Amino acid sequence: MQSDATRQDLPVFKWQPIALVRPPQDADRAAEAAAATPAAAGFALVILNQPLTHLGVTRRLWNNASLRIAADGGANCLYDAAAQHGHNWFDDLALIIGDLDSLRPSVRAYFETRSTRVVHDPDQYSTDFGKAVQHIRSGSSAGAVDIVALGGLGGRVDQGLSQLHHLFLFQADAAYAAGRMYLFSGESLTFLLKAGRHRIRVREEGEEDVFGKYVGILPVREPSVITTRGLEWDVQDWETEFGGQVSTSNHVLPETRVVEVETSRDVLFTIALKDA
Fold it and tell me: What is its EC number (predicted)?
């Protein structure tokens, strides 16, 4: 059990994930969110190679992003989603990067005629997701940059676990010095909570809810001790580990605007999207 003095020493992190998918015309709220977390001020969007079934979220992320990149076959997914609805929503794709073993020639030709750069990176010791992240980080002149990956969970289990692995791999610093990373799937948003105290805003007064009620807190890498507030089944100084107790399918209370999580070690936080 952590003492009150120990709790006071923990770093405090504020999260505003609503800002990622907020309609861009809401300038006042966007400015307020930008002061709370860098993600609201612009982020890099990486499209992974999974079908884009959640087009409402996809288009809001696309419109709010400051940089848009497809990881190899992610370009196929963009092309197919737009073509299915007869639109050119994603023609301003900046870059396609990867070993290009999944990119269809016709899709490559389509985007190249729209000034999209195509970068072939044959390195077989890194994933296409990893290549996209490295490109973003190496090209950033503004320091830390937040990254949102779309389409990361689904399909093969090993690929899904690889995407979760990347959340740890590219956020090694205890204070997110290189930027924060978010993983959107068709049904949920997942991000990494470093050891510390986290305030996650999940609801705004006067706005339609973005997130559903289901929440999970997963100690993927190592055991942790967590305390939560704002959930239906809150816990205090609760030991959690794979093979032991794990908090899944918890519920955000209807009156909760901010979920608080205190954790002694890094854990994954996942929350359902409302219209998934």
Answer: 2.7.6.2
